[in-house]
Amino acid sequence: MSSAPRDELVAQLEPLVRETVHQEGFELEELDIRQAGRRRLVRVVVDSDDGIGLDEIAKVSRSVSATLDANDAILASAYTLEVTSPGIDRPLTHPRHWRRNRLRLVKVRPLEGAEYIGRVGPADEHETGGVVLLVNDELRTVAYREMAKAIVEVEFRQPPAEELIKLDRCQGTDGSKEESK
User: Fold this and answer.
1) Which residue ranges form the domains of the chain, and what is each CATH number?
2) What is the per-residue pLDDT across 11-35, written as a single tens digit (0 to 9) for each?
3) pTM across the whole model
């Protein structure tokens, strides 16, 4: 069984899988290929601004499987396909992650200073931008590049109405008013 290096396989398959996932109306968050015994494990993580349900995961799985089968010379071995959505504990690493988690609590570990918890407000769409966070009842604009790590905090109660109102009224990082959905 010939075995191309893992990074090479990902580089060859990622554009094909990304296009397939995009055609189904979702975004490819991650493609990982690992050896698992005699087979390869192909792990595909997909998401969208509106989330993704089990029926949609099954549909994407069938489409990705067809794409992999049509390009079986690249994998050159048997594989197991796992299609999933990101978990709640996934780090927020792209602007779209911040937009999808608007009004949720996040724990932020900055590059400098102490860790803090804030509620997500308007988020810039550019990697060079940032996000407005409500921290200790104060609005704070934080650049993405200033954060070492940020993850969503699980809440077991409804957010306080006054926090939601404050964030709903605040300006985006570019000074524009953010539209509520």
Assistant:
1) 6-84 (3.30.300.70), 95-169 (2.30.30.100)
2) 999 999 999 999 999 999 899 999 8
3) 0.67
